[in-house]
Design goal:
Low-confidence stretches: 180-193
Number of strands: 2
Strand content: under 5%
Largest sheet: 2 strands, antiparallel
Shape: elongated
Distance between the termini: 75 Å
Strand order of the largest sheet: 1-2
Helix content: 55-70%
Mean pLDDT: 76
Order of helices and strands: HHEEHHHHHHHHH
């Protein structure tokens, strides 16, 4: 019985800790494009840990007779609280809304950086598709990447190229950007005025 309690306790700790990390991590487009990691684990790793230990705990609860009896007899109050919190969260009612708002504020704060994210989930696009979507001439961008010693194939995704070169997708993007043509800059300025 003791080993099951320890297993339940440690699984709970992992779920709580991974939940905190999920709460503060940046939005997916930022996490993926910048190569965000915490304790050496990326966004998908934290998501997977949280889900797997959630299933693991569910399995322990379902198959643990003593815990089932305790939960059934002693947990009516806890179930009412869980129902209240769940409904309040889903309906976005205060004070639950404040917790969600704080999460959004923290996630958005990761975006305040020098790195520009031109396309949501652009790291999943092939290099050719990235060039097309951003109207970057293929030959100019590939020349820039070659000049900087980047190994690539235009059909590989930005993420694959970044991994191959031990960089993040945003670093690959920064290396392939071409400077604006002075005529283009003049056009942009005159449109704003």
């Amino acid at each position: 019985m003791r080993k099951w309690i320890d297993l339940f306790l440690f699984s709970t700790i992992i779920i709580i800790f991974s939940g905190i990390v999920l709460y503060i991590m940046p939005h997916g487009r930022v996490a993926y494009f910048t190569g965000w990691k915490f304790l050496g684990i990326d966004k998908d790793g934290w998501d997977n840990l949280h889900v797997i230990f959630g299933f693991f705990m569910g399995h322990i609860v379902v198959n643990w007779r003593a815990l089932k009896k305790y939960l059934f007899l002693e947990s009516v109050f806890a179930l009412l609280i869980i129902a209240l919190v769940s409904i309040g969260t889903i309906k976005n009612i205060q004070p639950f809304k404040s917790v969600s708002d704080l999460e959004e504020y923290i996630k958005n704060s990761w975006e305040v950086s020098k790195s520009e994210i031109p396309i949501a989930h652009g790291e999943l696009l092939s290099l050719k598709d990235v060039f097309d979507k951003l109207n970057i001439p293929l030959n100019q961008a590939t020349d820039k990447l070659k000049e900087r010693g980047i190994q690539f194939n235009v059909n590989e995704t930005l993420k694959e190229i970044a991994n191959k070169n031990n960089l993040t997708p945003v670093k690959i993007y920064e290396k392939m950007k071409t400077k604006k043509n002075p005529i283009d800059i003049v056009k942009i300025i005159t449109k704003e005025n």
